[in-house]
Amino acid sequence: MKENTHTEHHFHSSALVTDIVIGMSDGLTVPFALAAGLSGVHDIHTATIVTAGLAEIVAGSIAMGLGGYLAGKTEIDHYNAEQKREEWEVDNLPEKEKEEVRGIFADMGMTEETQRQVVEEMAKDKAKWVDFMMRYELGLEKPDATRARKSAMNIGLSYIVGGLVPLSPYFFTPVATEALKWSAAITVLCLFIFGFFKAKFTGQNPWGGALRVMIIGSVAATAAFFIARLFNN
To answer: Is CB count within 10 Å lower at the N or C end of the chain?
Structure first.
């Protein structure tokens, strides 16, 4: 008998990876565009750009982290509210809920007799019954109770790490245009690498993803630079 050696390869996107992608993508792009825009101003010292950049990174990381916290908290609150509603329906409208379960099993191809037996067994355990309805009727998975706090930290720290990349050359040279050249080279490379692995982890074309992320960041920074130069003139 031939041994089955097939191995399935699937990417299971974790909440941590999602948070890092959100924080890092904005962290690389927004401070890069800000620094590039300020570099377009004549006679500006890099110390001014560093100050503005650090202020933006702090404000941006807090804003992004708060957004992640609120999103995670909303997900938890929504799940809890729907769970309470399902518990009430199971207690007060059991026959209606059983009919809904039978409908789910019917869509799976089960016979009426099998549907009836499974539903009656499930109805003996309220917690499992409610959990089944949450998953298969509403399509909701129980969220991690600490998700909101973890999300805020992950996104905020990722934003800071990403934001320091384009700003770092401005720490070492007093000439803004010279620092911009190094910042552009480093950031574009990081955007390419970040886009490559982001696409690879999510099952997309890694080269296409790398180019897409790199182009978006480059366009944003270029636009900011020339707009600042235009208004300065």
So the answer is: N
